[in-house]
Design brief:
single chain, 498 residues, alpha/beta, Leucine Aminopeptidase, subunit E, domain 1, 2 domains, nine-stranded mixed beta sheet, six-stranded mixed beta sheet, elongated
């Protein structure tokens, strides 16, 4: 999609549709909506006065201009209450406007930047407008042979009437497009079905993206994984005819004395549960069990485009988890990093392959390790679909992630990692079990991973509830959300400023 910026007045711009926003309970429209109202002889004010448009969050109304201004139509979109305005609401409003316009069969539109006051800067708001628009307009249509609605918006123009703010707006638009396109690339990967995206294809997609953005990428095969003694990854992969892959994607960074950060993502390209097979209901969604792996790849893509001053390495252990004749079994004892693990259920395979990857990550002596995984159904029970679970061993890193989550709209919520929870992982026959009892499932998943971390600052993000939505919500269509890409990008941007 082409996104351009113009210095123009909203009542002078020629367009199929121009978007302006109005706050709830404002008796008179402000900003660009106020400018249009004057030219249109009070039509917008009249709509508000009569209660036909209230300005509630994401409320929309189309006004035809009948030649009174160069634009053929106006889309009024509600911002909700003025004192509740946030960047997340800007994304939501921008997304609603984009999908409404596409629903009208239009291929382009012009939008004014919402008036948010001094609290939010032009760059931030412009970035949120672009993110909300691109994320909302995303559709996964690779396997549709017939499509009734083929309309796609191919051009968006953002207008700014203040010459001094054009530079800020351009910066925000560029950031928003880079981050949203990286998230949408991630969504494409996650939405692919298991028969299309086996571990080998996931490695190929990482290599293809690396060539495009000048990154280093190695994809290790079965023999190399054996040499590295990644025993858990090997054992989980035994139930599948598809050989595992271990993906190493590196962005070397821009600048001197760079900090190294390692991102680790779970890459189960399809999860049947293995021998401890899942119920058949909704098992088709288990193609998204590699969402953590896709997210760390997408985050590195965004970091490279933004020339961030970090060396960032993404590690993705990729395999299927199937109940083949050679599959590992409940009661088996595996070894990772010298620790023995009693298998209670083969449906807790993600933490096993992550144990191998976290051990590998520490060879880089990084400043921090962050892992992302659709690890537990318990996280959905605990937090629903509004926040990712967060655990870790370093207060500064966790606080940075929380702040980045609030700003990016990909919120996280911390759960405790007290030593007492380790008791739930004690085994009678091995160093630890791969699951505890039914209590504290999210926490014991994190506690298990923590056993494979030395003193390196580390955070674990359980994205089981946020990586996928059954129905469209806010500015996300049903399916993969690309969660983690915007969060990690914002983390690195904030960290670079420090």
């Amino acid at each position: 999609m082409k996104i351009s910026i113009e210095k123009a007045r909203v009542d002078k711009v020629k367009a199929e549709m121009v978007v302006v926003s109005v706050y709830e309970k404002d008796k008179l429209p402000g900003g660009e909506a106020g400018d249009l109202d004057k030219v249109l002889g009070g039509k917008i004010k009249d709509l508000i006065k009569k209660g036909d448009f209230k300005g509630k969050l994401s409320e929309t109304t189309v006004i035809y201009t009948w030649g009174q201004i160069p634009a053929k139509r106006i889309l009024l979109v509600g911002l909700g209450k003025r004192d509740e305005m946030t960047l997340e609401r800007v994304r939501q409003v921008a997304g609603k406007a984009g999908t409404r316009i596409r629903g009208l069969g239009l291929k382009s539109f012009v939008t004014a930047i919402p008036e948010t006051g001094k609290k939010l800067g032009f760059s931030q708001v412009s970035q949120a407008v672009v993110e909300g628009t691109l994320l909302a307009l995303y559709r996964f249509r690779q396997f549709k042979t017939k499509e009734e609605d083929k309309t796609e918006i191919d051009r968006v123009t953002i207008i700014c009437r203040e010459p001094k703010k054009i530079t800020e707006v351009k910066k925000g638009v560029e950031l928003g497009q880079i981050v949203a396109e990286a998230a949408n690339w991630t969504r494409d990967l996650v939405n692919l079905p298991g028969n299309e995206l086996a571990p080998q294809r996931m490695g190929q997609e990482a290599q293809k993206m690396a060539r495009q953005f000048g990154l280093k990428c190695k994809v290790l095969g079965l023999a190399e994984i054996r040499r590295l003694k990644m025993n858990c990854l090997l054992q989980v992969a035994k139930g599948s005819r598809q050989p595992p892959r271990f993906i190493i994607l590196e962005y070397p960074g821009k600048g001197k004395r760079l900090k190294t950060v390692v991102l680790v993502g779970k890459g189960i390209t399809f999860d049947s549960g293995g021998i401890s097979i899942k119920p058949s209901a909704r098992m088709e969604e288990m193609k998204y069990d590699m969402a953590g792996g896709a997210a760390v790849l997408g985050a590195v893509r965004a970091a490279a485009q933004l020339n961030l001053p970090f060396r960032i390495i993404a590690l993705v252990p990729a395999t299927e988890n199937l109940p083949g004749g050679a599959a590992y079994k409940p009661g088996d004892i595996l070894t990772s990093s010298g620790k023995t693990i009693e298998i209670i259920t083969t449906d807790a395979e993600g933490r096993l392959i992550l144990a191998d990857a976290l051990t590998y990550a520490q060879r880089y002596r990084p400043e921090a390790i962050i892992d992302l995984a659709t690890l537990t159904g318990a996280c959905i029970i605990a937090l629903g679909h509004e926040a990712s679970g967060m655990l870790g061993n370093n207060r500064r890193l966790l606080d940075r992630l929380k702040k980045a989550g609030e700003e990016s709209g990909e919120r996280v919520w911390e759960l405790p990692l007290w030593k007492e929870y380790d008791e739930l992982l004690k085994s009678e026959v091995a160093d630890l079990k791969n699951v505890g009892n039914r209590s504290a499932g999210v926490i014991t998943g994190g506690a298990f991973l923590g056993r494979f971390i030395n003193k390196t600052p580390w955070a674990h993000l359980d994205i089981a509830g946020t990586a996928w939505v059954d129905k469209g919500k806010k500015y996300m269509s049903a399916g993969a959300t690309g969660v983690g890409v915007r969060l990690l990008t914002r983390l690195f941007q904030n960290w670079a400023k420090k």
